[in-house]
């Protein structure tokens, strides 16, 4: 009976040990499953981040395409100006030749004036496109010089901002201003000192004390006169040209 009791005791200890091992395995399984869930969540987050990067790449590709289109249009206008200047020169020679033969040059002069007006208009269009392209290039320079961590932080918050707009809590205009502000590092704006009425621009964000007027040195009078969105709209707005006034009108 004593031997049987020892045997049963040994079996009981063995069963207790196996039970303990099962508990440890169950605990380890729970830890592994938790880790798997964490990895799945991290994977989903990375997939969303990669998707955002692809969207940014597509946006940059679109901007590059726009620049290429502006450049091609500028070259076409240059070619058109060259052709018209050549044609204008030939008309001038034709007028001089016919002045010797006849005194009635009204028709030829009218054609010459029409070509001159067309040439002036084409030059104005070229200047306009060149100016728009320069502004666009400078804006890209501001975007490229902005802080990458700041841009990443702003992009992460975009879905939340879009949700507020859809809910009617923010306006689309506010989001546009926020986008321009973050892309340019908050440097594309015209400032005005209400004390001495001087207007000026800066190329870096302000410190904790804000901007100081370069004339009177005061800071609490300095306000934003035109923000980035207003400047870009005005700079890139289409213009009309009138040959008789020889000015560009917005």
Short description:
The protein is built from five helices and five strands. The protein has 250 residues and is mostly helical. It folds into three domains: 145 residues; 38 residues, no CATH class; 53 residues, Single Sheet (Rubrerythrin, domain 2).
Distance between the termini: 112 Å
By secondary-structure content and strand pairing, the structural class works out as: mainly alpha
Overall number of strands: 5
Sheet having the most strands = 3 strands, antiparallel
Q: Give the oligomer, counting copies of the same chain as homo and different chains as hetero.
A: single chain
Contiguous runs where pLDDT drops below 50 for at least 5 residues? 239-250
- How many helical stretches? 5
How many separate domains make up the residues?
Answer: 3
* Amount of helix: over 70%
Sequence of strands across the biggest β-sheet: 2-1-3
H/E series, N to C?
HHHHEEEHEE
List the helices and strands and how they pair.
Layout: H1 2-101, H2 106-145, H3 148-166, H4 172-183, E1 190-193, E2 199-200, E3 222-226, H5 228-236, E4 240-242, E5 247-249
Helix pairs in contact: 1-2, 3-4
């Amino acid at each position: 009976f004593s031997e049987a009791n020892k045997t049963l005791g040994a079996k009981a200890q063995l069963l207790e040990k196996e039970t303990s091992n099962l508990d440890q395995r169950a605990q380890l399984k729970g830890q592994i499953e938790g880790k798997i869930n964490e990895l799945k969540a991290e994977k989903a987050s990375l997939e969303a981040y990669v998707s955002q990067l692809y969207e940014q790449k597509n946006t940059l590709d679109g901007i590059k395409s726009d620049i290429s289109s502006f450049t091609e249009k500028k070259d076409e206008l240059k070619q058109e100006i060259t052709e018209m200047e050549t044609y204008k020169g030939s008309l001038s020679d034709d007028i001089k030749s016919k002045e010797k033969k006849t005194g009635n040059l009204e028709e030829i002069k009218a054609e010459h004036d029409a070509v001159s007006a067309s040439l002036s208009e084409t030059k104005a269009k070229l200047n306009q496109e060149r100016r728009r392209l320069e502004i666009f290039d400078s804006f890209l320079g501001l975007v490229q010089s902005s802080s990458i961590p700041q841009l990443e932080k702003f992009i992460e918050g975009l879905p939340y901002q879009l949700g507020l707009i859809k809910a009617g809590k923010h306006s689309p205009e506010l989001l546009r201003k926020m986008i321009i502000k973050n892309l340019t590092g908050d440097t594309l704006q015209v400032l005005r000192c209400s004390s001495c009425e001087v207007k000026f621009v800066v190329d870096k964000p302000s410190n904790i004390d804000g901007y100081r007027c370069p004339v009177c040195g005061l800071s609490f009078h300095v306000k934003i006169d035109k923000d980035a969105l207003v400047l870009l709209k005005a700079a890139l707005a289409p213009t009309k040209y009138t040959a008789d006034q020889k000015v560009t009108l917005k």
